Amino acid sequence: MSGNTKSSSKRPAGRSSKSPKQKSMGLHSSEILALNKKAERYAQTVSAIRSEVEKVIVGQKDAVTKVLLALLSDGHVLLEGVPGLAKTLLVRALSSTIQAEFVRIQFTPDLLPADIIGTKIYEHKTSSFKTVKGPVFSNFVLADEINRAPPKVQSALLEAMQEKQVTIQGETHKLKQPFMVLATQNPIESEGTYALPEAQVDRFMFKVLLDYPSKEEEAEILERYTKLSQPEAGKITNASKIVEMQNFVRSIYADEKILEYVSTIIDATRNPEEYGLKINGFIEYGASPRASIWAIIGAKANALLNGRGYVLPEDVKSVIHEVLRHRIILSYEAEAEGITTDEIIDQIMSKIRVP
Description:
- The protein is built from 15 helices and 11 strands.
- The protein is α/β, with parallel strands linked by helices.
- Strands 2-5-8-1-9 form a 5-stranded parallel sheet.
C-alpha cells in the first residue's frame, strides 16, 4: 500500500482505492492466477451441467444455481415448495449429467430406519448374516416430504449427512462420493407431519424456496412436456470429477476481511442490538457456527461458478439467505406479525458494512 497519508485521507471512510479483485490479485498474484485458471476450467464444466439441467427444468434458475453450489460445496439442501414444482425432476436431471446414482425415498409415517440405511438378514443356506444396504447408498438421495416420517427415521439420516457413513448393527459402512441429500418439505400441510428438529435442520447447507413458474414458463412447460418425446439431460462429467471440484472449492482464496465480514453477519443474528438493529424481540436464537462455515464454503463455490479463484463480498451475498433462512429461529412475536427470516436477513445485510 502507498505511504501517502494525504491521498489516503481523501478517500471515503471504509473505502479502499483498490477494487476487491485488485486487492486479491495483489496479495500473492501467482497463486491467485493459478487458482483463476483452474476455476475457469471447472466453471466451463459446471456451465455445461447447468445447460443440460435447464433443458429439462423450465425456470427455477435460482434453485438450480443453489443446488449446484451445494453440490460443489459437498453440502445438503432442504427444498421447500408446493407439490409439482419439479423438485424430483431437478435432482434426477442433475444426477444424469454426472452419471451418478439417484434414489427417491417417499417418507411416510410407517417408515423405519432400516428402510433408509439397511439391515442385516439371516441366510439359511450359509448360516450367516448378510448386510443389505438401504437406498442411502446412492450419490443423490431425494428425501421426499421428510417431515412426514417420525423423528426416529429422520435421525437415521443424521450420521449419513454429517459423517458420510452409516452404522448397521455395529458395522460402519462408507457412503459413495459425492453424496448429497436433498430433502423436500410441503409448506402448505401440517397434519400428519413431524417438524424437523433444529439439530437436523442445521445439517442442511441451504434451504431453497421454490415458487410457481411465470405464465410464460408455464407455457414452455406445456410445450416441452405434452409431446411424445420429452427432453433429457445429457452426460457431461462423472462423479470423480465432481469430487475433484469439491476439493478445489476448499482451496479457493478467502481474504481475512471476507472471513470477518461473514463472522460479523452471523454475530448480528445473535446480538442484533450491538449493530443498531431493532429486531431483538424477533429472534429467539441466532445462527450456529455451521452458518459461518457454510457461508464461506458457499461463497467459494459461487466464486468457482464465476471462474474465480478468490472470494468477493458479492459471493457471500449470493448465498447468505439460503444459509441463514433455516438457522435463524424466530420468536412468537415475529411469527404473529408475519415477519419472515428473509426480512430479518435483509435488515442485517443492510446494516453490516461491506469490506
